[in-house]
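ingest -> validate -> predict -> emit
validate: passed (alphabet ok, no gaps, 373 aa)
predict: started
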Amino acid sequence: MRYDTVIIGGGLAGLAAGISLQKEGRSCAIVSTGQNALHFFSGTFESIQEPDQRILDLFNGAGIHVHYKKGVRLMPLGSFRESGLSLEDVSLFPTPKIGRKVLIVNFTGYHDFFSAFLAEGLEKQGMECRIRFLNLPEFANFSAMRSVQIARKMDIAWEKVVQEVRLLIKDEDTVVLPQVFGLRETAVVSRIRQGIPAQVVFAGTMPPSVPGIRTQMQLKQRFEVLGGTYLMGDRVLKAHVHDGVVHSIVTKNLDQHYLEADSFILATGGFFSKGLKSNPFQVSEPIFGLDVEYALDRNQWYNPSFAADQPYMAYGVKTDAQLKALRQGESLKNLYAIGSILGQSHPELGSGAGLAIRSAFAAADDILSTPSV
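emit:
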């Protein structure tokens, strides 16, 4: 099986690269193990503020509605963080205050939305809060209340939530709901806001992230509509590399059917996604055996303070200026590394989602500068 480019990793970075290449007529395959960082997505694209037109085109083309204004956004425990480019689910505020009186609404039995901690955090900043729970018959047969299960029901039953919330409101000017709406019906978020006679704010929950899963599905659909091949639930077992060139990869599901390409992109993420692995002696990249930037003294990998920045989160594979990955100090001629597997080796590209998108664009542009064979 041969493509112009094979991308390993189906998260934000891999999809952004794949969409960019498919739009220019390059055939791409994405190999995805399944879960990725978008499943833990807050709804805000870190390190992107005022987006350029190319970033907006990426999201608009996939039907993803984003917005930005300078200020702050609400975090799940009632604190605030600097705003960034965000999905429409995420409300942005000029100051750390979402309202005067706040009604926080949760679902009975749903423990992944911390309404008490949220209220405590808001009250510390001068807001008056009241918590109420909805007991809906749609959830009666759930063995466990998880965000995606609730979201599937809410695509159908969201109007009942609106009706119940309208009855609960007294003199509150703001209603906070868990971020469990609009999994497949993207208009549900705006319909809820229109139906409730108060400002509606959606606050984050424990993973999996409903807005994140929706974003991943929309980008995947866009990639496939453009003609891309998305190999879900597969993983790369080994790569064939000769004379500094990657010729093919072998995956678990395709067995002896190699994936060949002119270029390859590694977008497997950091430690969480198993793009990087470690043992007591070293940090490594498991597919190609790439060079990794990390401290040789293991005691320098971590900070004993749990709340502090952890040094190991900055570790990543080494690349040249074009993001071509290094192995034994030499650039592999047709292998690019993008996204969080880079760690903090390219601060000019930002961090988080900003790093994912900007590095994806950079790799795609370099590939497009080379004529397709």
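Helices lie at 12-23, 53-61, 115-124, 147-168, 188-195, 210-225, 352-368.
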